[in-house]
User: Fold these one by one.
Assistant:
Number 1:
Amino acid sequence: MTAFPEIPRIEYEGPDSDNPLAFRWYNPDELVEGKSMRDQLRFSIVYWHTFRGTGSDPFGPGTALRPWEDGTDSVDNACRRARVAFELFEKLQAPFYAFHDRDVAPEGASLRESNDNLDAVADVLLEEQKRSGVKLLWGTANLFSNPRFMHGAATSCNADVFAYAAAQVKKAIEVTHRLGGENYVFWGGREGYQNLYNTDMKRELDHLAKFFHMAIDHAKQIGFTGPFLIEPKPKEPTKHQYDSDAAACLNFLRQYDLLDHFKLNLETNHATLAGHTMMHELDYAGIQGALGSIDANTGDLLLGWDTDQFATDYYLTTQVMLTILKHGGLASGGVNFDAKVRRESFEPIDLFYAHIGSMDAFAKGLKIAAAIRADNALDGFIARRYASWDTGVGAEIEAGRAGFADLEKYMLEKGEADANVSGRQERLEAVVNRYLDRL
């Protein structure tokens, strides 16, 4: 029985199509920079917003109509939901999906019961993966919803909570490995503090590092070889989260000798909440070899929280894809739609409209980015702007052959610095506009 009888498999029809249930830009087999769009973008659909989101907000209960739900939190309902999820994945031609442990299976009255529930649903997930060919991009553990995690999980002041979190992550890594997950994500939803009067920050950071080293050790024991990913987020729910942005995460990983085992899973809405652009966060991670995957969404600049909207802005998707291509692609990561339909978009078909629109936006962003790169439209200007570093004193500085005394002597003899080169920001923004007009 189908949950979406009125929805066909979504196919590519081209930019002139007016069919809302067709792709205008996402052509999975089209080659871009020598790889198919499918392999460049590696689209992934999240389980939590798509199949557990209800449309509730702080001012009212959920509005979403989900006919496949029976109103219970039973394992049977979870298994039925899993089969519905794969119908949507297949019809959208999404090669990957992602989940939290507590999204796919109900939490039991004990850790043992929760583990049994997860195993039962994982049996269905594995069966559906084999049938459909859809793969698991990554799994993760929900260490933030249950009240036991009020003070954090790996950074909790309660050692028993740390132990519970470790046991839960152990199981989540094992299930991710069993399902062939290509990565494992840590999002420290409550790994931070509200007030330093009651917080031993150094001890909490030390404990978080111990937790990650334990995860590395267990992954080696079971043969899980995918990278671990940390997802930065600056605030919400805690006032100060230890994984606040890419720089904070990389500093932490380097300090605790974890950098060889971790990359970053970057999210647009989290970047803007941290006061950065997504392009900044991607580039910062990329130049340090830590770009792992992205959570593809956007926020509302008029609202100060994580709204997790579907990205449809071609400027944003072009900037994202420019930076991803610059750093060689996403490897085992993907473009993961950590986004939810609005409360007012409550019918099942809205799930399709939302994903189709954002998949098209990233596909067009990919095509625009590739065209800009092929013409060297931005990099050529950057090379000219930094030309003084390629010869003469600039090359000496970069090669480590000049110190302060050498540079003092150089400038005393020269008398004044050469004239600066204009940044041409407005011209370059117009260049990008022309590519958007052209494609």
Number 2:
Amino acid sequence: MDIATLIASNGGLSSADLDTARDALAGIGAMPGVAAWLDQGLAADLPFGRADRAGARAALEGLLPNVDVVVQPEIGRRKQLLVADMDSTMITIECIDELADYAGIKPQIAEVTERAMRGELDFESALDARVALLKGLEESAIDRCHAERVVLMPGAIALIRTMKAHGARTILVSGGFTVFADRVAEAIGFDRAISNRLGLSGGMLDGTVARPIVGASTKRETLISERDALGLTPGQTLAVGDGANDIPMIEEAGLGVAYHAKPKTAAAADARIEHGDLTTLLYAQGYRRADWVA
């Protein structure tokens, strides 16, 4: 059996909504089973058979307002490895854009960031170009930016700490910078963080990024190497991100999730989270709120 998990971001999931979802599955020739609440009014599982997952997902996504849907095999839904992006995934901002604000050039850099995340620009070249524009910014702006701008994404702590409490390994892999990623990883509870190093000289940014750059291939390779080191199957892994540089790891994972993502990323993912916060991924794994660690 496969399973569709329906998660309402506004807590407004009703029994009638579940009946609507069952009818939609029956309408494509599936055999829906009996729905079971994970948390009343918030999240429910709807098992089904005799239909491919892509067809079931197409039938259910967008069917109910403010409801995210994750369709996957029922067996193995609790993952033992999570690899996650940082900017706009585990935190609410793009750090380089906020650093640019301290330099007075945020609109110029944010436009490039948006295009890179949409997959319209080569990530490494775009990163080099943006960092070069920050040359001469005082190093103290990093600490100011962290203190004043960095906000953890709702649900991030619950997601990571709950998975770890149940034996999972969690890795933060960011195309952003160690000066932010290391602190974010510690605050949330990740086992490990991998990110880029900004060049600093004389108390200022020198406009460079250390090589090799952490980009799309690093994210995918990290998932594979951590998976293999743990002796896991692909189906035991989860990846989540929002930008085009997250696509390779999302496609490699057993469950690849696009979180409030750019269109190319959303199209490549097994699941799209468009309404809820990161705790949606706990419901997708079958965790009830009473199981969460926060």
